[in-house]
């Protein structure tokens, strides 16, 4: 029988423990891959951030690709009303957020008043799961060639709430601007409005039938509000 010194046996046991520990560490070192921050490209709607604040059928919209034109008006089937809840953590928002591919976009009828033009921008959950939207949409007017008309809309101040959308339910955000005939702003007639859901990169395209919009000059700013439950105020 060959005698192994105690110190040698302890060294071997230590080395084996280190090797096992290293293997366990490598196997358990999973990392969550986060997508890079949203980017803005010319001629597309700016990706929206869910919780920032700053100053009727729809087209069946297709994410990130042109869609065939269809007249806007009231939805053919009236979506049921969604529910709004205040608060909402980042983790919950990330896990339940509505993705662009799960939504249909539309623009409701103008509700003018006091020299302002006011359009509801509506997102409807077309998926089979319950999801949420929170904050502002991104938006951009474009011509028939896809070129952007005017700057990106600004954001009106307001508190964001998490709007829970069951399948078929909708949320709306206001799109408002001064009547160009009153403000004297330079105008253009868009072919479409690109709408980006909160915290998403891909946009939805809706044929614009609301006439001329301000693109430069005095009082040419267009503003968006945060999402609320339903299809109109």
Automatic annotation (TrEMBL):
Pfam families: DUF4232. Residues 98-214 form the DUF4232 domain. It comes from the Bacteria. Residues 1-26 form the signal peptide. Residues 32-44 have a biased composition (Polar residues). InterPro entries: DUF4232. Residues 52-96 have a biased composition (Low complexity). Keywords: Signal. Residues 32-98 are annotated as: Disordered. This is DUF4232 domain-containing protein. It comes from Streptomyces murinus.
């Amino acid at each position: 029988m060959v005698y192994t010194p105690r110190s040698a046996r302890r060294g071997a046991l230590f080395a084996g423990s280190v090797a096992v520990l290293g293997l366990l560490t490598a196997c358990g070192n999973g990392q969550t891959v986060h997508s890079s921050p949203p980017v803005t490209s010319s001629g597309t709607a700016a990706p929206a951030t869910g919780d920032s604040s700053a100053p009727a059928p729809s087209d069946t919209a297709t994410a990130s690709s042109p869609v065939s034109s269809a007249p806007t008006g009231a939805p053919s089937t009236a979506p049921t009303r969604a529910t709004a809840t205040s608060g909402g953590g980042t983790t919950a928002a990330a896990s339940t957020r509505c993705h662009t591919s799960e939504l249909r976009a539309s623009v409701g009828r103008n509700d003018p008043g006091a020299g302002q033009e006011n359009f509801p921008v509506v997102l409807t959950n077309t998926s089979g799961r319950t999801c949420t939207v929170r904050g502002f949409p991104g938006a951009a007017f474009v011509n028939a060639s896809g070129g952007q008309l005017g700057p990106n809309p600004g954001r009106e101040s307001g508190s964001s709430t998490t709007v829970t959308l069951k399948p078929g339910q909708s949320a709306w955000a206001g799109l408002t601007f001064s009547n160009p005939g009153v403000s004297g702003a330079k105008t253009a007639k868009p072919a479409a409005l690109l709408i980006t859901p909160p915290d998403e990169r891909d946009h939805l395209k809706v044929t614009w039938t609301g006439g001329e919009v301000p693109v430069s000059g005095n009082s040419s700013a267009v503003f968006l509000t945060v999402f609320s439950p339903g299809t109109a105020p």
